[in-house]
Amino acid sequence: MWHNMADEAEEKLLEQHSFPAVCPACGRREAHVYIVKYTEVRGGCWVWCSHCRAFSHHSLRPPSYWGEQKEPVDRSCLSALPADLEKQKDAVDAWMTFYYRGLDDDLCECCIRNLDLSNTVCPDCHGKHAQAHLDGPCLILRCPDCGFEVIGGSFYAPCEQDNGRYRIRIISKKLSKEQILAVGRCLKLPVLEVKKCLDEGRILSKELYLGPAMSAQEYLEQKGILCRLSPKPRYGRYRACGLKMEMHRL
What we know:
Layout: E1 3-4, H1 7-14, E2 31-37, E3 43-49, E4 54-60, H2 83-87, H3 89-99, E5 131-135, E6 138-142, E7 149-152, E8 167-170, H4 177-187, H5 191-200, H6 210-222, E9 227-230
Parallel strand pairs: 1-4
Antiparallel strand pairs: 2-3, 3-4, 5-6, 6-7, 8-9
């Protein structure tokens, strides 16, 4: 019976570059990863273990180096469960071992909001003096040589397109009553549930989008509570960045 893989186990497997890998859950070298690319910003990911039947399936931003290489599995066979992938695991392992070098460490490095858009080539006269800039999600380009002007939409930074859900794991070993109350208030969780998770060393159940999750982590750290997000966000400049748009997801 397939069952959900723990976030920490999935993170460790996505750091591997050779497959099959050792499953963090059962210790057997029967863990697999498969990634497909739908667009530059959207892909699908499957992580599973043939032995203990733990698995995870979700969307992710494909690695920046991920090309259009021929995939070993027909996409019509793909579903949330890795049952069909399991049948072709040897081909999947060979393909992933050959192509996969890990996820991008920091998506801020390839963020469109950090690009120098001055002296852009004009698509109309091909002059090299066109000026472009971002205004929210819109790209505005003007050419002083020929007067060409165009406005395009849907230019979003990687963090602005992040629809993933994040959870918080408390790292601090001993929390005061005031700190436990702060966790409950911040995440809108019952205090007894928070205390039980802490006593059992479990990750907190509340799921948050990226912005609220980063804000919650910052708030808890200000309260002296060491914590981390799971999965680990791949935005090294997120807090310091003054260019990103706030998406106001709850």
